Amino acid sequence: MSVHAEQSALSVPQLARARAEGRKLVMLTCYDASFARVLDAAGVDLILIGDSLGMVVQGHDSTLPVQVEDVAYHTAAVARGARRAIKIADFPFGSDATPEQAHAAAVRFVQAGAAMVKLEGAGHKLETIRFLVEREIPVCAHLGLTPQSVLRMGGFKVQGREQSAADQLRASALAVAEAGASLLVLEGVPATLAAEITAASAIPTIGIGAGAGCDGQVLVLHDLLGIDTGHRKPKFVKDFLAEGGSITGAISSYVDAVRSGAFPDATHSYS
Ligand code: KIV
Questions:
Q1: Which of 236, 178, 230, 228 is closest to 202 using CA atoms?
Q2: Global pTM?
Q3: Distance CA 149, CA 139 (A)
Q4: I need a surface site. Which of 137, 146, 156, 235 has the fewest CB within 10 A?
Q5: Distance in angstroms (rounded) separating the CA atoms of residues 119 and 89
Q6: Helices (DSSP H) in the chain: which residue ranges?
Q7: How far away, in angstroms, is 242 Cα from ligand 1 center?
Q8: Catalytic annotation on 187?
Q9: pLDDT reading at 267 higher than 90
Q10: Catalytic residue among 120, 127, 187, 196, which?
Q11: Which residue's C-alpha comes closest to atom 2 of ligand 1?
Q12: Given this model, what pLDDT does residue 1 score?
């Protein structure tokens, strides 16, 4: 039985079960009700209302200008379109600076229809993860190339290539799971490092530019559909519309490719 085969709404505990049974998790970003319906029908397990909306919907150069109101608005729209998939709302820049601020935003997201919230980084965010989980709000962590760190990183750059950075990433991955996160997104990380982290992780990992060794994959919807958003497409992006022939076909091709392990291949991964 696949996660997809169950028609009722997926729940957070089913993610660990899928991993234990070796079933790949399929995640995509989405920002509105109509696309959410299409993703749900195609069997996407997790829908991320990502702060990427700042770049692909609002036309900004980074995710930094996104507001809590924006994510709450788009989460409510997605929740009206998708019944089965788990909806994950992304904390915008600054909204998770303290556990209390994060909790106030997370309550809005859950009330808009999210079943989980996502935050970038470890360090002081570990306290926030614990704070939210203790208050019954499931958390997805996000490590590696964290787009909200663009000012410090000096651009959107692959992370974990040097030994010390790889060691730091391994430690952070263990720490977010220890703090209570249920899921971990690894972005822009060499494939071998992401596979090592996945093997050592107590929680499922979802890769984006992190190779095929993760427990699942995520892409930004606009990238999967080959839409020109005005931003450079990273190496890991694949235009599934070219092979799928239609929007529904493209999303189904992506779902099948992630489930079978065909995506990402070496040409869509970093070494
Ligand atoms: O905001 C987003 O879409 C994300 C994904 C790229 C993982 O964080």
A1: 178
A2: 0.96
A3: 19
A4: 235
A5: 9
A6: 13-20, 33-42, 53-56, 68-81, 99-112, 125-134, 150-153, 163-179, 191-200, 221-224, 241-244, 247-260
A7: 22
A8: yes
A9: yes
A10: 187
A11: 50
A12: 36
Please state, in angstroms and rounded to a whole number, the distance separating the CA atoms of residues 156 and 147. 7
Confidence bin at 7 (pLDDT 50/70/90) = low
Whose C-alpha lies nearest to ligand 1, atom 4? 50
For 198-208, what is each residue's pLDDT tens digit? 999 999 999 99
224-238 pLDDT, tens digit each: 999 999 999 999 999
Contacts of 103 (CB under 8 A, 6+ apart): 131, 132, 135, 137
Token pair for residue 156? 């959107």
CA distance 91 to 89: 7
Class level of CATH domain 13-268: alpha beta
Q: Which residue has the tokens 């997809």?
A: 4
Distance of CA 222 to the CA centre of its chain: 14
The tens digit of pLDDT for each residue in 105-129 reads: 999 999 999 999 999 999 999 999 9
